[in-house]
Amino acid sequence: MNNANPSTPNEEIVHVGRRILSLEQVVAIAEGASVSLCKEADYREYIQKGARFIDSLLHEEGVVYGVTTGYGDSCTVNVGLDLVHELPLHLSRFHGCGMGEILSVPQARAVMACRLNSLAIGKSGVSYELLERIETLLNLNVVPAIPEEGSVGASGDLTPLSYLAAILVGERDVIYQGQRRPAIEVLQQLDLAPLKLRPKEGLALMNGTAVMTALACLAYHRADYLCRLASRITAMASLTLKGNSNHFDELLFAVKPHPGQNQVASWIREDLNHHEHPRNSDRLQDRYSIRCAPHIIGVLADAQPFLRQFIETELNSANDNPIVDGEGEHILHGGHFYGGHIAFAMDAMKNAVANIADLLDRQMALVMDTKFNNGLPANLSAARGERRPINHGFKAVQIGVSAWTAEALKLTMPASVFSRSTECHNQDKVSMGTIAARDCLRVLQLTEQVGAASLLAMTQGIRLRIIAGELQQDSLTASVAQTLHQVSADCDLLTEDRPLEALLRNTVAKIQQRQWEVCR
Ligand SMILES: N[C@@H](Cc1ccc(O)cc1)C(=O)O
To answer: Of 48, 142, 230, 391, which cross-links 383 as Cys (Cβ 3.0–4.6 Å)?
Structure first.
């Protein structure tokens, strides 16, 4: 995902406004799809009604709490009408204190898509012009340079989203055509005048969950692919180990009916061409990292539907405060910026994903070790004879896998339990959903690395079995044969020691670009 290049032509157009967005559509926008905001006259009028309602309240009453007063704990501070128009600018500026890495262009595009979609629901009191400008910037691929740290995920992603507000008014930096440049310079180059934000617009842009939701959409997509890839790798590990395909039998799984777990078992069963049920079996029972693979990968597979529901409901919500009902003329103060659902989804997902890293790490341990690998050479080295003593096969790669797995497992501590009171106790309970989402992406990265190493190792293992005449190439199912062929095309049999970093990086990139054919 991080390597996805949004500058490659992407013909897809995602329509925003008056429709539900799927998380796949957010991923498509992240990867370069264009956005088309609803242009219907009555939709435009519906959006403008909210902005006009704020104007008329200001005109009639001179005050809208939380909008024309100070923000958060400072809402008792009244701001005179002569200063009200400066407030949005101050809000974006004083939150310009983000730290850490800058979000990638696809991630920043996903953030813009999520904020646009939420504001396009029409309950935030922003003008149509503001929505149009986000649409324009997305379609020109001008994105804010957003530092990823500094959100507690409950007053919305205030600080990171202030970087979106900033570029709209021509402040801070954008990333455009691969370069980080001052926003004002790029806006001028593109003939776009900086916006002057209306009273509610700074708050509406920043007071929501768009950063964590965007990262959650991207994480979901990666986790989905990983489930399928881990199932294929498990089938290949079973072949490498001369494992027992009875463990994936359809009758066996019929009596434990978790649907995701059954799906994973059926993928592995298909890969292993297991269709006959044993009457009795003298085959040994494989170790848990093979035998229980559907029960481990299946936890993620079974969690995905409810994680999707959490993420997509948040994505299609007005996660703002106050909510502005322009039609009924109500200002509704609440806490919709609170990202508890995304926090829970990301804390849950990172746990299930890290368990897959752990599973693959254990499978790797089995195939490397002559005590467990059923007659294969140590570390799957293909070196023979007098060359054997100086060659080490996948030894260091296995050590890497152990390190990546440990790091992934270490990150599974739920972020949401670290809620703490902040902002003079106005925000005295917060979600930490953005931290959970960032953890989850890191756990995914590490697990993809483990997946890449495992894919290479299991490919080597099956090739060694074929060379030894213990497995016939034509006995492989078409799906396993295809993966074997695809991976072998990138990777010569590992015989003499050689640095594998470039190959591993390339394999991880292919996983992130979903290039390997996996179970469907
Ligand atoms: N999220 C707060 C508003 C707020 C905005 C900026 C802050 O710095 C603090 C609080 C609310 O809607 O209640």
So the answer is: 391
337 lines ligand 1 (CB under 6 A): yes
**Residues 108-127 pLDDT 10s:** 999 999 999 999 999 999 99
Final residue of a structural domain among 188, 208, 228: 208
96 lines ligand 1 (CB under 6 A): no
Q: Which residues contact 183 (CB under 8 A, 6 or more apart)?
A: 144, 166, 167, 170, 171, 172, 173, 174, 194
Residue 329 has phi, psi (to 5 degrees) of: 60, 65
CB 508 within 8 A of CB 400: no
How many A from CA of 155 to the centre of ligand 1? 6
Report the CATH number at residue 377.
Answer: 1.20.200.10
Residue 1 falls inside a structural domain: no
ipTM of the prediction:
0.97
Ligand 1 atom closest to 203 (CA):
5
Which domain-ending residue is among 208, 233, 258?
208
Q: Are residues 442 and 492 in the same domain?
A: yes
Question: Does the reported pTM lie above 0.80?
Answer: yes
User: Do both 381 and 309 map to the same domain?
Assistant: yes
What residues contact 27, with CB distance under 8 A and at least 6 apart? 110, 217, 218, 221
HSE (side-chain half, CA atoms, 13 Å) at 285: 5
Both structure tokens of 124: 């935030």
Please give the DSSP secondary-structure letter assigned to residue 292: T
Q: Is 288 a catalytic residue?
A: no
Do residue 297 and residue 407 come from a single domain?
yes
Which atom from ligand 1 is nearest to the alpha carbon of 72? 10
- Identity of the residue numbered 134: I
